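Possible race condition, two jobs.
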Amino acid sequence: MSVHVERITSHVGDVGGIPIQRALPNKGRRLIGAWCFADHAGPATLPPQQRMNVGPHPHTGLSTFSWMIEGEILHRDSLGSEQVLRAGQVNLMTAGHGISHSEESLTDRIHLAQLWIALPDAERERAPSFQHFPDLPRCSAGGFEGTVLVGDWAGHRSPVPSFTPLLGVDLAASGPADAVLALDTRFEHGFMLLEGEVEIAPAGHEAVETVAPGTLLYVGPGCASVELRGAAASRLLLLGGEPWAEPPLLWWNFVGREPAEMTVWAQDWAREDGGRFGVVAGYPGPRLAVPPVPALRRPG
């Protein structure tokens, strides 16, 4: 049985002064499981006056998932949370009904993955929350050192919660590596290269795909295993989850279902008190202004 494989090219951009490569959402694919947004920020060394600095902005209907590889970022939010995110740690902010936050780099060197997780209908109006995870389970496979970011993998379970079946693993090799990884055949998966170059051979796919930063390799459900081969130092994220029947609607910092919701949320954020999103205390600067809401269509 053959499996469906796609190569997805990231969009290049800038967030808060740091270069990013955005793999999701993409014209050809909006989701991998509930993962609906995937940015690779850095690695970059910036002068102090150009450090990453993102003013207060709103979110709803999602969880933001920040995985720090190098550097430090200060998170503030409208719940009153103030937390420094350091290398090897995860911040999970579940927006639910609505929350706002800011992000400031505290170091010149920065390298991280910033991901969004779409909330299912039953959870997208839940009360907002913020959680910090300084310790995550680690394991090794064929020269790759793995950190289980969310879900179950190789006999290890991450303490990071999720509202849908989900997987996130950071795989890093300091030199040549060759590993065969078992996959959950119910899941679709994405292999997002952050550093180096890796050959990826999914079971049921005739070709061997060579992937470098800026490319995400999508592997559809039904794939039982994959072989990863790297000739030198490399790093990639393995993202997975059960496919969604219908993709959510994404616009700006919101994840919803209907275009009319976006207008209501934009009007809320335009209020002086931030409406449902509240106010971020302590940030030394203005909040981000909401852009005009474009003509949107419900995803199909």
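Job #2 (started ~2 s after job #1):
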Amino acid sequence: MRLRYIFLISILLTISAHLSAQNDRQLVRIGNRFFYEQNYAKAEIEYRKAIASNGGNTQAIYNLGCALQAQKKDSAAIKQYELAGKIETNKIRKSKSYHNIGVICQSHQMYKEAIEAYKESLRNNPGDNETRYNYVLCKRLQKNQKNQNDKQQNKDDNKDKKNKDKKQENKDNQQQKQQQSNEQMSKDNAEQLLNAAIQEEKATQQRLKKSMQKPQKRNLDKNW
């Protein structure tokens, strides 16, 4: 009796798993119809339902990435492609996930990341000419980007050097003007002191001259 009970539970679990598999595949098909109609938001909803029903459905995960990418939700799309690429066992389908990651990174001029994604795609499908072309193109674009960055860096460095030199020149000019101003003040002070001394000397000579010109009074003796 106990063995029959266990066998019955096993049958029920098998049927439940089969219905669940049918359910997620059906949801993927519904999502695909919305996707081909370019109704990407509704397609996203159906693919998410399929994944909720069966988290290992790599087709639903990959298609969700496509729906997100079509809506310009690139960061979210990359996460789905990475997950699909990680758990997918079919090398051709795995290569498509990494190819799409490369396409997104390339569109954002993230050439280093795009190159790595294309490499992984080619490891799984070496005969994919489109991926190989994108890989070579990104290598060239990365080199051009580096050259442009180097030129811009040199330009910025030269600009900074000119600004620094100009600031130093202005500082030197200010110091020179201050020094000249101080020297002029010292010269003016010296001239003022000299003029004051000359005036004081003249005044002293005039007082002395006037003193010598006055007649000297003789003191008379007192009568006895």
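The first helix runs from residue 2 to 36.
Logs attached separately.
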